[in-house]
Amino acid sequence: MASLTIRKLDDAIRDALRLRAARSGRSVEDEVRVILREAAEGSPSAVSATALRTLPGLAAPSSRRDVGLARVTLIIGGGIAAYKALDLIRRLKERQIDVRCVLTKAAQHFVTPLAASALSHERCYTDLFDPGSEFDAGHIRLARNGDLIVVAPATADLMAKMAHGTADDLASAILLAAGVPILLAPAMNPLMWNNAATKRNVATLQRDGIVMIGPNAGEMAEAGEAGMGRMAEPLEIAQAAERLLRPPRPEPLAGKRMLITAGPTHEPIDPVRYIANRSSGKQGFAIAAAAHAAGADVTLISGPVELGDPAGVRTIHVESARDMLRHVEATLPVDIAIFAAAVADWRVAHEGEQKLKKTATGMPPLQLVENPDILATISHRKEGRPPLVIGFAAETEHLIDNARTKLARKGCDWIVANDVSPSTGVMGGDRNTVHLLIRHGGNIDVDSWPVMTKEEVATELIAHVAKAVVTEALGQPS
Ligand code: C5P
Predict the structure, then answer these.
(1) 257-346+367-472 is classed in which CATH architecture?
(2) Which ligand 1 atom sits nearest the alpha carbon of residue 416?
(3) Is any ligand 1 atom within 6 A of the Cβ of residue 414?
(4) Can you tell me the distance from the alpha carbon of 308 to that of 317, in angstroms, rounded to the nearest whole number?
(5) Is the pLDDT of residue 427 over 60?
(6) Beta-bridge partner residues of 338
(7) How far is the CA of 410 from the centre of ligand 1 (A)?
């Protein structure tokens, strides 16, 4: 077996390795092992310096949390409840939380580093002066990397050290250097928990922003003793950790019903031909996804598009403007309606039952009739008009002026105006530049936004809707 001396690698590779190791919270040696294993398994994590710099973990380290990954440093203190920390590792891992364990000296009387490593699938740390991890200030790395430090069981002694800032072993040094939130699961005899010194320490730690789960009341390990001091159950601790790592997102539109139209419509000419437009549906779909993320109960009514249905959104697929109107009316009442569809203005008056044929006299005449205007129909309803109706104005010239006129003519409350001249690439593209026109009695406010992705436009629009819902307390649908 060949051996590798990291010191002899060239500077660029060594720097990239150190950076990658620091970001993934591993020692440099462990990181090399991971890279070699991935390379042997044929994973794309190649070993050139360039490749190292362009690895996803290097390019976007902060995105781990965005995709739901999280890492906990679990400090296991020396108490009889330490055996429950092994179950806690499992509970955290089943929540897609990576766990890296640190055992105090006392903890090792109750559980072994081997058991903690086996369950966490990571190396376990025990010594402040371990040359293997300390050559690159391992305790600082353990204290700073990851997303949360959990101490379970948090003994009276560990808590006293924390309260007084003592750092004479690896666990207390990590806690003193911590750059991430700390969750303690205290566990001790009720006499220790009720001792004035412990009470002072608990108060100090709480003032310092340390979060605690438990202790619970119950039987102690000591025969015949009961009271406050039992460590919270592993499931409770894991749930508390998850709440800190993934706090529930605010849902300002919870309880609100929303209707959104999107995409083009197809107006049949005969069984094989139709009138259509270039709308991709991306903007309407993005709005539906953003509304769902804000907690709304969303119905999306879409013309023919090549997009997957947004998760969690009731999606109804339609073809023509008349289908769309029928489903829109069937979806009422709603609190908020956003009409982002590019509905065809006209349809063929008499749809051919058979495929139209070329004739000797030339083109068959196509007589067009106007489609129902869905936005105007809903905006002008006497009964069941949604309290907030938002339309879109896709224009190729005189954008704001045309949008103002449209706001009045259609009778909606807000208009999102966007320039769809071919040079903008908006139709079918991924970006959009919009102006939000809001009617306030007789006045119209124009809010111009910078160029954004369609997802960003959707998020911004939904944020405005949420603000309006909160400040204007939109009524319930009638
Ligand atoms: O008149 P124009 O098509 O420019 O109006 C655009 C707005 O009106 C969009 O919100 C669109 O969804 C809506 N609209 C509609 N039904 C139509 C035409 C447009 O709902 N037949």
Answers:
(1) 3-Layer(aba) Sandwich (3.40)
(2) 10
(3) no
(4) 11
(5) yes
(6) 260, 390
(7) 9
